[in-house]
């Protein structure tokens, strides 16, 4: 296997529209565990309105990278910058207030609550103060927003159903809707396609494309489903052994010999 590309700071994508703002910058990020580098000098940018995919073999550092960006882990070196403000090591709750949202590989829905109630709770996480939650209206004024998100994700027939009674694919769709509920600046989606059947996967991809096209949502996707990534994302980053191996448009990544050797296997 060829040596990974240099970990020098990544330039903006060559085909980036002029004037498009950089939402997220990751500069020389490193994270080690017991002397083993899980993330080794990774740098990249996420542009406003972009859908960026991050792929790589198991153990390549994808989840560790996500967790360093999102404050679950503190990197050993490097910087994370959101809209020009350094957020390296900032707590997840503080990042929420700056408009950063995420999903997890394991679903984070509340099974005893309805679809609508789950969305209201997701909205409350990003809005208001403790006082407004204690003394304001029970729904924090978010029922209308929740119903609009339900309609956008085409879940009207499920609005009053308990989340725990939904199929796994429907729960994944709800999980994605919750991540976008408060109109976040940046969303990081961790394995959104995992375990979802083909019909529901098509629905999820359609809604993610739509929220990007219609609302300009900016998000990053970690995913093992190559067809999902290549058909959804506008740009793809490949990690191998904790380093950035390749970066480019989906068609270029599919044809890259180093990626084929390291990951695709065909």
Q: Can you give a write-up of this model?
A:
By secondary structure, this protein is α/β, with parallel strands linked by helices. It has ten helices and ten strands. The strands form two sheets. A six-stranded mixed β-sheet has the order 6-7-8-3-9-10, sandwiched between helices. Strands 2-1-4-5 form a four-stranded antiparallel β-sheet, with helices on one face. Helix 3 (115-126) packs parallel to helix 6. The radius of gyration is 19 Å and the shape is globular. InterPro entries: AAA+_ATPase (IPR003593), ABC_AA/LPS_Transport (IPR051120), ABC_transporter-like_ATP-bd (IPR003439), BCA_ABC_TP_C (IPR032823), P-loop_NTPase (IPR027417). It comes from Alsobacter sp. KACC 23698. Residues 24-266 form the ABC transporter domain. This is ABC transporter ATP-binding protein.
How would you write the strand order of the largest sheet? 6-7-8-3-9-10
Beta-strand content estimate: 15-25%
In percent, how helical is the residue content? 25-40%
**How many separate helices?**
10
| Overall form | globular
């Amino acid at each position: 296997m060829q040596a990974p590309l240099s970990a020098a700071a990544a330039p903006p994508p060559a085909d980036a529209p002029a004037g498009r703002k950089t939402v997220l910058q990751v500069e020389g990020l490193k994270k080690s565990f017991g002397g083993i580098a899980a993330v080794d000098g990774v740098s990249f940018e996420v542009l406003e309105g972009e859908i960026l995919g991050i792929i790589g073999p198991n153990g390549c550092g994808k989840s560790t990278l996500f967790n360093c960006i999102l404050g679950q882990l503190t990197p050993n070196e490097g910087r994370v910058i959101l809209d020009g403000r350094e957020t390296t090591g900032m707590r997840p709750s503080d990042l929420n207030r700056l408009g950063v949202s995420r999903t997890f590989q394991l679903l984070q829905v509340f099974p005893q609550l309805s679809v609508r109630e789950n969305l209201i709770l997701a909205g409350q996480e990003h809005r208001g103060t403790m006082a407004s939650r204690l003394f304001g209206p029970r729904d924090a004024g978010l029922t209308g927003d929740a119903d609009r998100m339900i309609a956008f994700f085409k879940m009207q027939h499920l609005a009053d159903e308990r989340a725990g009674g939904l199929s796994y694919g429907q729960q994944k769709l709800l999980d994605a809707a919750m991540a976008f509920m408060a109109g976040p600046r940046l969303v990081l989606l961790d394995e959104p396609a995992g375990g979802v059947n083909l019909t529901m996967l098509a629905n999820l991809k359609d809604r993610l494309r739509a929220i990007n096209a219609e609302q300009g949502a900016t998000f990053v996707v970690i995913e093992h489903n190559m067809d999902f990534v290549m058909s959804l994302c506008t740009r793809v980053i490949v990690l191998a052994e904790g380093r950035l191996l390749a970066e480019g448009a989906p068609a270029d990544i599919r044809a890259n010999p180093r990626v084929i050797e390291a990951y695709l296997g065909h």
